[in-house]
User: Which sequence fits this backbone?
């Protein structure tokens, strides 16, 4: 990375991820090594964060004595466990010591902490979880994928605006094509929410190109898919689950006989490229758009590389001032 | 088929399917040949249906001079085109000349004609489109997949009851596990509709096992997935689209080099079984549950085998008296 890159400070939840600190810490070390302008505030239990900080430049330990686990009710846990690594991490952003926060912990808890502790950007009705989905064609963006199960049409307009900003700046894709996830391409299709959102998006979102269907998402027909958090979450998990089932079935087919096994071996190089193209490892994190600074969620099953890339993308989101662009757009909408 | 099988009459839309009569007619011929107790009323243009009926026993021609095409607004087209093959076919059921109707035409138009022309079973609030999805594990059922974009919790309860009946009788799967498609497994998860439907289904649907997520559908974790027609349609098209993209990508990976191509050739026998297991050809048709008699929709891209199987499954649905079971359940719910 070039020397002109701006220094940033990211608060990192040492306990995120299914395997916790043993994966997060090597990821932090790799991120610090690759980005000499990166500072990390590592939040978690003293025995994990203090020795690590002592050994690494540009890393400060911030002790948190509690942990929010996957099974807890997100908002309740965030309210009660004020000394959890997650809440302590978000407080670093709230109080200005860090400009962004990254966690691979429970998505629901990160969303709750981001909204309750860091706080919304003025004019944003509902922060939304925006995922970058790997596809064999190219990465695509879907928003919301679970922060808001019940939505008003106005929320979807703002999801579209925020996701378009993220796609333009962070994915570096100018003029992204923004589509509304719906059940038909015609304008009049859909439930009441989709019909009303369509009409509003046509007026207020310059990048809006119309309706998309479920099959368009992984086909990467468009760049950004806007939907309520219920539909988006079902769609996202359907894509992940379908891929898993189909690859499992292909693997099983490969093991059917010595001949099919030999065939699979010969195909390996081709399949490896494909499997890399649809791995979420390089994406690293999904932003909670609409909160101040940056608040990013890593996959629960992140490995070291995914953690490293999640921290990098958090730093990039901070440096590109995604939150300021969102604040400007929200202010213009109010004007 | 055994001689004891009950004779049934199915009205068939000769114009359904992307390729029309040239695919439907051979499918009808094959169905008549395989099921000696099947009678068909073939509805469509005179030049197509009359010569065919003259050549085939147990087939009667019913001339319809109009056609409803894929692009038309379903309800409007059904109301205006009273002499379309679709409306004429449904009228055969309404007026008691046939016990069921099969069409591979525009899904929206079949749904509209089924509801408006054949009519609802007493006590059914909203007929619902129920799809049988092929999965590498086993077939699964999802309802609704597009008939009702906006739903009340009570509708979902009835979708669950109707889909459970169809799964038990027609798929011959006793005690099917019925799940609510949701965004988390915990009871309190979901949007308002899913939360309220969950509570009602727990009380009123004995086969209800709880929430499922998008990833559970193709994994066949449960037998029946209940959802509103908006979410169901997005989920269904996401599964179809994701499969298409991934198989396309595997094919591309296979063509990468002479070596990968050789490997793919060796794997062919294994992949063929898989591709057959997830083909919708053997399923043939999706029922519109909740209308009198039987009203079944075939895939728009059906081939001759799919048409044949669609007609067989319509006959089976009639013979098993799915509509009577639904009427009884609806009556019990009112009592």
Assistant:
């Amino acid at each position: 990375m070039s020397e002109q890159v701006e220094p940033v400070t990211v608060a990192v939840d040492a306990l995120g991820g299914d395997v916790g600190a043993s994966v997060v810490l090597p990821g932090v070390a790799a991120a610090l090594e690759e980005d000499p302008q990166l500072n990390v505030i590592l939040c978690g239990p003293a025995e994990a964060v203090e020795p690590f900080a002592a050994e690494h430049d540009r890393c400060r330990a911030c002790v948190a004595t509690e942990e929010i686990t996957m099974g807890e009710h997100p908002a309740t846990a965030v309210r009660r466990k004020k000394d959890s690594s997650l809440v302590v991490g978000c407080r670093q952003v709230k109080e200005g010591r860090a400009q962004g926060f990254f966690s691979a912990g429970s998505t629901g808890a990160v969303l709750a902490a981001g909204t309750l502790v860091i706080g919304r950007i003025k004019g944003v009705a509902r922060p939304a979880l925006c995922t970058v989905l790997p596809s064999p064609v190219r990465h695509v963006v879907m928003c919301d994928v679970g922060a808001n199960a019940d939505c008003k049409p106005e929320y979807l307009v703002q999801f579209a605006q925020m996701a378009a900003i993220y796609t333009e700046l962070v994915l570096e894709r100018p003029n992204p094509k923004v589509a509304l996830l719906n059940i038909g391409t015609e304008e009049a299709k859909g439930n009441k929410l989709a019909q009303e959102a369509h009409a509003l998006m046509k007026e207020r979102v310059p990048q809006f190109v119309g309706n998309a269907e479920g099959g368009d998402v992984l086909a990467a027909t468009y760049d950004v898919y806007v939907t309520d958090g219920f539909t988006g979450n079902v769609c996202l998990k359907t894509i992940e689950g379908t891929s898993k089932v189909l690859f499992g079935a292909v693997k099983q087919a490969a093991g059917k006989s010595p001949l099919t096994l030999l065939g699979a071996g010969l195909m390996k190089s081709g399949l490896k490229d494909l499997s890399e193209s649809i791995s979420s490892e390089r994406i690293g994190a999904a932003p909670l758009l609409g909160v101040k600074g940056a608040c990013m969620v890593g996959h629960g099953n992140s490995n070291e590389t995914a953690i490293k890339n999640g921290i990098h993308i958090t730093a990039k989101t901070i440096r590109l001032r995604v939150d300021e662009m969102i604040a400007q757009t929200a202010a213009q909408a109010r004007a």
In short: The radius of gyration of chain B is 20 Å.
